[in-house]
Each structure stands twice: as C-alpha cells, then as structure tokens.
Amino acid sequence: AGIVTGRSGTIGKVHYIESDFWPHNTTLWVTSFGDAHVKFVYYLFKYIGFERFKSGSGVPTLNRNDAHSFKITVPTKVDEQTAIATALSDVDNLIGSLEKLIAKKEAIKTGTMQQLLTGKTRLPEFATREDGSAKGFKQTELGRIPEDWEVSPMRALTTLMTNGFVGTAKSHYTDASDGVLYIQGYNVKENSFNFHGIKRVTQSFHIKNSKSCLQTGDVLMVQTGDVGMTTIVPPELENSNCHALIINRFKKSINPKYFSYYFNSSKGRSRLKEIEVGTTMKHINVGNLLDFQVPYPCLEEQTAIATILSDMDTEIQALQQRLEKTRDIKQGMMQQLLTGKVRLTH
Asked: Were both Cys, which of 66, 178, 197, 279 would link to 53 (CB 3.0–4.6 Å)?
C-alpha cells in the first residue's frame, strides 16, 4: 500500500493505493510508514492540504522540503490511529455507495426519458385505443411517432418567445434589498437552478427591460454557451429578470415541464444542435426556435410523463443533498479527529 500526491501541475489531491503501483516523476509518494497506520496517514495528508506548499508562477510545484518541515500532531498509539482511520473509512464507504446509487438513478432516469419522450414506451393509460387494441405509430417529418401524437412548430405552442436582455448590465448591478434577481446562463441547470453567484439589478433597469421579465412556468433555455440547457421558472423567481436566455411561455394547453424535459433529453439536445449558428460561439436564434418542430402527446400524457420524471428528479436531488451532508460530516470528523479535539473511546 502507498500514498501518492501530485508534485507538479495538480497539487493537493492525495490518493491511497492498495495494489502495486508505478508513480510518475510528476508525483511524490510514500511506501514506508514505520509504525504508523497507512490509512491514518492518508487522511492526515488530505487534511493538511499540500496545495499550501505549492510554488512557482508558471506550473505549480510542490516543494517536498517545505512539506517535510511542516509540524503536525499525531496520536502515538497505533490503536487510536486505526480507530480514526476506520471511522473515516466507514464514512468514505457511505459516500461511495451514495455516489453509485445516484449514478444508477440518473442512468435509469436517462433511459426513462429516452423511452417516454419519444413514445417508444407508452404509459398504460395511454397505450391502447378505446377498443382495447394497442396504439401504433405514424411517419412524420421527425420520423416515427405514436399515432395519436402531434408535430408542431414552437410558434404554435407558445404565447411568447423572446430573448432576455442582450448586452452588459454590470453598471446596473446592486446589493440593495429591493434589487431584482438577474438570471444568467450559468445559473441555469438541467431542470433546476444554481443560485451561487446570482446577481441583482436595479429596479429602474428591471422596469426599462420588462421584456425580459420572467413568470412562473416560463421555460428558460440557454442561448449561448451550453446551448439548449433548459429549466422551468419556479414561483420564487417570479418577476426576476434575465440575460442571454430564451424565454418560452407556453399556451395553457401545453405542460411546460414536458418540454423542459424534452429539450434536456439526448434527443432534444441533438436536434437543437441542428439549428445552432455561429462559428466560434454557438448560439440559437429565436427565429429558428420559433420554426423548430417538436413532437408531443395530449396534455394529460404530457403531465403524466413530466410527473414521473419530476419524481425521479426529486429522489435524485434528495440523494445528492444526503451526499453533500455526508461529505460535510466527513470534513467535520477530520477536523475533530485529526486534531485531537475529539478522542475516540475504546
């Protein structure tokens, strides 16, 4: 067993290796631990954070001499080192199990989207005709779709499609309590939002640019960058403003969540690529999206499909929150156990 960390380039990541290994000359490694417990040393190295010793303005380099001179406190008894390493390993195993479970759930969701959003698989209540016979398929300009599905351009399904504010609003950013939330491309995630680093703009800017004001249920699509990434505006973002996003406001006969899932599916994203324009920075024009043909079932089936996928998202988000909480717990345990602030009892 041994421990390896980066010496040049990537500094700070520490790896525990149980099998034989051949370290590259851009790494530093330890294979001789004396009487110390190997896994304890591994966690201690992770806690120390070797990135603090990096030097060099170009390619960062870990100075081994600086690391050698760094003083630490350790329990002298191997039994206590073992107990600490075991406790942290147990949490690591839980983290690994959660990561695998999340990956499995996400794969299941991806497969379910592929089946339900193309009509390859029908939910039981929509799969048969009134006489009990199985519904078939029909050929369209988009290929084979269920016989009772429709194909329409987006302009026929929306009451509004427009750009968010185009240009720079930096001079209108504000920390005032009455500032209006300003949604940008990096805030949009797949059927969710990343609120980290979110900006606010002044009321006067918001009023002047009311065209890019958001309503609950609007389908927001990233226009430049991660083109086609789509999400739904939740109630807490009602009356927010936005930048360089396409606002899609659907008719009441359409479930916006269904189309958010469709655009985020592998099929939807691949089709959106067909209408991308630009050489260096790809983007989608509103005019092209208005003419973009989409397949869809009746409102009841749209809602049923969106509900199933939304329930899957809720389950995955709960697992991700549990994973983040477990990671935080591990960090707290390392802080307490590796400094001796908390001692394990035997």
From this structure: 66
Distance, in Å, from the CA atom of 160 to the CA atom of 217, rounded to the nearest integer, reads 12
Identify which of 12, 86, 19, 17 has the alpha carbon closest to the alpha carbon of residue 45. 12
Nearest to 1 by CA among 27, 54, 37: 37
Q: Please give the model's pTM, rounded to 2 decimal places.
A: 0.85
Phi/psi for 30 (5° steps) reads -130, 130
Kindly report which listed range (70-79, 204-213, 257-266) carries the lowest average pLDDT score. 70-79
Cβ atoms within 10 Å, residue 342: 12
Query: Who's near 158: CB < 8 A, 6+ residues apart?
Result: 248, 249, 250, 251, 254, 290
Residue type, 69: S
- Report how far residue 336's alpha carbon sits from residue 218's, in angstroms, rounded to the nearest whole number: 46
Token pair for 216: 């609950």
Asked if residue 118 lies in contact with residue 144, where contact means CB atoms within 8 angstroms, the answer is no
Residue 174, by phi and psi: left (phi above 0), alpha (psi -120 to 50) or beta? beta
Question: In the numeric block, which tokens belong to residue 19?
Answer: 């099998």
Please report the pLDDT score of residue 59 as a whole number. Answer: 76
- Residue 58 confidence (pLDDT) above 80: no
Bridge partners of 173, per DSSP, are: 201
Question: Which residues, 6 or more positions from 292, have their beta carbon under 8 angstroms from its beta carbon?
Answer: 153, 154, 271, 272, 275
Enumerate helices (H) and strands (E) in the chain, giving the number of each: 8, 18
Q: How far does CA 167 lie from the centroid of its chain?
A: 26
d(CA 311, CA 180): 30
Using the structure block, give the residue that is written with the tokens 């591994």.
Answer: 42
Task: Kindly state the helix (H) or strand (E) to which residue 189 belongs, with its residue range.
Answer: strand 188-189
